[in-house]
Amino acid sequence: MNIQKIDFAGRLFSLLTLALAIIWAFPLYWALVTTLKPEFEVVQPGLNLLPKTWTLEAYTHVLTTTKIGVWYVNSIVVSLVVTFLVVLMGALCGYALSQLRFRGRTLLWFTVLASFMVPIQALIVTHFVLMSQFGLINTWLGIVLPQLIVPVVVIVYKQFFDSVPKDFREAARVDGASELNIFLRVYLPMNWGVTTALAIITFIGAWNSFLWPFLVSTSEETMTITVGITQVKENFGVQYARNLAAAVLAALPVAIAYLIFQRRVTQAIMLSAGIKG
What we know:
It contains 15 helices and no strands. It has helices at residues 2-34, 39-42, 57-65, 68-99, 105-116, 124-133, 140-144, 151-162, 166-174, 179-187, 192-208, 211-216, 225-228, 240-260, 262-276.
């Protein structure tokens, strides 16, 4: 009897999970289907789950009449530079806080922890004023610099470097290795899994970033893809299929990256959640 109840509860839970998954995925499905409809069909009343007339006109319009190629290049460059610098600085800072003893170390550690609790949106005005004074508005550097503040990467690296046995460091010191060699040849290779996970999640975050690039980029030549798709507009009303096609093209690289590196992304999310918890 108990087994039957457990089996029934399991099936009920599975059905509930399936229903919630369908509800979550339906807006994504609807957006994708809308991009494959002609505009007159999009605005027709009623709920049509499939297009009556299949067309790629919305994608053709976005690819041929906008600067989406430039926006893609900008996003790729900005995301790769942000990812490389964030991971590199986070690893170096985490190693220093974990393994080195220097004056001000405790203060630096508490500063990193305190900055983790400050939302980046609270610094937007300060960042904009600084970038304006430095003459970095509408430049890649102006987009990149404020996105390098990612204290969670430092915290994650410090925790993992703390878990490395001290014997490895002492053996390397006996062999005459410098601190940089110890970091590059001993500690960093032991954490390639963490590095990969953090790099992927940082890249996705930089690619999806909208608020700061939107504020600092006013020229289409320097816009990232998330900002550039806001320029897909018409003089005679809203063209829903074209707007959604631009959004789908903007999200496509991130979706592909997630499907390929799903396990690493999940690992990075769990690491970040563990820090926040």
